[in-house]
Amino acid sequence: MNHRFACDCHNHSACSPDGRDAIEAMLQRAGELGLYAYTLTDHCECQKFEERYKARVENAWEKMGKAQPPQGLRFYRGIELGQPNQDTRAADRALEGRGYDFVIGSVHNIRDFEDFFFLDYAGAPEGTIDSLLASYWQELMEMIAWGDFDTLGHLTYPLRYIQGEHGIEVDLHKHGEAIDGVLSALIKAGKALEVNTSGLRQKIGRTLPDLPLLMRYRELGGKLVTLGSDAHCTEDLGKGIDEGIEVLKEAGFKEFALYEQRRPRMLPLE
């Protein structure tokens, strides 16, 4: 890593359905990379908690508690809650009795639809994509109102697939008011905004959110930002973190947040 305080605070082990490598392997790789800190955040899709994720959450928590990080690596226990607004009772149960250091709040699918990854955009009638995005911003607002998370994961997640995988351009200016509403709500609630670097290694080719939206967040008064690669295997761990730090610096930020016991510890972007 090229930066003294490089941290990867969004990634997944084999405890997630789409993760590949064991926690021990992820920890070893984090140590090899020379990360300042590593936070593991395995998935919990809240609307599927009882039938699919309850046991996974319990397993991940237990294994993280037994994990032995390499010497010199700061290791934190986290979780990514998907769609907590769609089942707040399940989200509360996922957190109950577990002293996580860090909780990511994400929306991967809106109600009555599959994950944005699976949707067919090519044959969609005119206006469908804008309608999906309008619902997405609204669900983010619901999640912020619920509030028991620390950072908003990959704000522009749908664009990873709409633009990146399907090559369909989206005019975000049409959604400017809604996005400003999300960013302003985050700031008012004291929540962070994640810089998710997965897009740098994917077809979309930029961070999620990208530089203009990060600049807008700062312009609105946003100060709390976190960094995560969204890796699902050891090969992707830490990828894009150095570049993400440089994007934050370009946006005018001087520091970013590393969460310990659900509280931000501010680190310089160096």
Structure description:
With 270 residues, this protein is α/β, with parallel strands linked by helices. The chain has a single domain (7-268), classed as Metal-dependent hydrolases (TIM Barrel), CATH 3.20.20. Helices cover 36% and strands 18% of the residues. The chain contains eight helices and nine strands. Strands 1-2-3-4-5-6-7 form a seven-stranded parallel sheet. Strands 8-9 form a two-stranded antiparallel sheet. Helix 2 links the parallel strand 2 and strand 3. Helix 4 (128-146) runs parallel beside helix 6. The longest helix is centred in the middle third of the chain and has 19 residues, at 128-146. The model has no long low-confidence stretch (mean pLDDT 97).
Which terms would index this structure?
270 residues, 8 helices, 18% strand, alpha/beta, two-stranded antiparallel sheet
